[in-house]
Write a structure and sequence with these properties.
The chain is of the alpha/beta class and 377 residues long. The chain has two domains: 237 residues, Alanine racemase (TIM Barrel, Alpha-Beta Barrel), CATH 3.20.20.10; 117 residues, Lyase, Ornithine Decarboxylase, Chain A, domain 1. Helix content is 30%, strand content 24%. The chain has ten helices and 18 strands. The strands form three sheets. Strands 1, 12, 13, 14, 15, 16, 17 and 18 form an eight-stranded mixed beta sheet that branches. Strands 4-3-2-11-10-8-6-5 form an eight-stranded parallel beta sheet. Strand 3, helix 4 and strand 4 form a beta-alpha-beta unit. Helix 6 packs parallel to helix 7. The longest helix has 18 residues. The chain is elongated, with a radius of gyration of 22 Å. The two termini are 13 Å apart.
Length: 377
């Protein structure tokens, strides 16, 4: 929460739920990563928040961009990035999208199987490819599934095949899980990556880059490591596993770049109980829920800080739910959320740490509710 955001909400009084992002925080976060890991290139994960103002600021600061689609590539180019500062980091791409990206000048592509390598080889001859390997994500609050990446042993065949098809096998990629607060998580993945560098070198494939992925945490209810702490641990692990032959390294911060820069303003629509029992848990319904941008409350993985005008008063555990008619639109029930007893229908609440993965998860009108409005200041 920044004074600039509070002042904006106080003076503009926007109607309905909205996200407000403070660019000063984004700038500070970028400079923090750049200072903590000066020899590592930063590729902002556009999917976290593709607001044009954010992309333009980061392009001006010198950021590179991790893009998941041709639309995101176009957005990065419009913001001022050059094609050599863009990675097509999605391992699941239509062949025509690969061709379009290559025509735009992008020549760095993620793969995780020989079939994807063959698509790249057909329409982007000579391009650089890096292979994503599976990572257990242990310790992450939002662990990633097996949807992306391959077993490390398979990466050898994937990158050898890329070499045989006249592509440039460029490196190894992994992701230690989103909202990863364990700075040692990268050590385990880097040990595997170093082994792959060695095994592929024996086959005549000389890799140059390790993509350290994202995972850098935003501040929610728990303390998180600083950028400096991440940098010390990660680069220490790089040196430990690669010795004097340090590869090029890149990181893909998304949540850690913009999560803490945003606050959602919402409204209490209803407060009720399901029975007349004295100790019955209250249900607090907001005008925003899973389908309005808070999808990361799925399985209650991300617990956002919630502020009200009654903070400091006596609180009681509440179930928090969204406004739609879908029964899945419940944010916190397994572990009820403490809210002030004095909270009233019509009260505004502020949901902190919501700068990442909220506008992009917001539906386009489920139940007739409009997409989450966003302001960048």
């Amino acid at each position: 929460m920044t004074d600039r955001i509070l002042d904006f909400l106080r003076t503009r009084r926007p109607d309905g739920p909205c996200l407000v992002v403070d660019l000063d925080v984004v700038r500070q976060n970028y400079l923090g990563f750049a200072h903590a890991m000066p020899d590592t290139r930063i590729f902002y994960a556009v999917k976290a928040n593709p607001a044009p103002e954010i992309l333009s600021l980061l392009a001006e600061l010198g950021s590179n961009f991790d893009c998941a689609s041709v639309v995101e590539i176009d957005q990065a180019l419009t913001a001022g990035a050059t094609p050599d500062r863009i990675s097509f980091g999605n391992t699941i791409k239509k062949e025509r999208d690969i061709a379009r990206a290559f025509a735009l000048g992008v020549d760095l592509f993620a793969v995780d199987c020989v079939e994807e390598v063959e698509k790249v080889a057909r329409v982007a001859p000579g391009a650089r490819v890096f292979c994503r390997i599976l990572c257990d994500g242990e310790g992450a609050e939002w662990p990633l599934s097996r949807k992306f990446g391959c077993e490390p042993s398979m990466a050898i065949d994937v990158l050898t095949h890329a070499r045989d098809l006249n592509l440039t096998p460029y490196g190894i990629s992994f992701h230690v899980g989103s909202q990863q607060r364990d700075t040692e998580a990268w050590d385990r993945a880097l040990s595997v990556a170093a082994g792959l560098f060695h095994s592929l070198a024996e086959r005549g494939v000389e890799l140059k880059m390790v993509n350290l992925g994202g995972g850098f945490a935003a501040k929610y209810l728990k303390d998180i490591p600083s950028a400096e702490a991440y940098g010390r641990a990660i680069m220490g692990a790089v040196r430990r596993h690669f010795g004097n032959r340090i590869p090029e390294t890149i990181i893909e911060p998304g949540r850690g770049m913009v999560g803490g820069a945003g606050v959602i303003k919402a409204e209490v629509v209803l407060i009720s109980k399901k029975s007349d029992a004295v100790d019955e848990t209250r249900w607090v319904y907001l005008d925003i829920g899973k389908f309005g941008g808070l999808a990361e409350t799925m399985d209650e993985a991300i617990r956002y800080p919630i502020r009200t005008r009654h903070d400091g008063a006596q609180a009681t555990p509440c179930v928090i739910a969204g406004p739609t008619c879908d029964s899945a639109d419940v944010l916190y029930e397994q572990t009820p959320y403490p809210l002030p007893i004095s909270l009233e229908i019509g009260d505004e609440i502020l949901i902190e740490g919501t700068g990442a993965y909220t506008t992009t998860y917001s539906s386009m009108g489920f139940n007739g509710f409009p997409p989450l409005q966003s302001y960048v200041i």
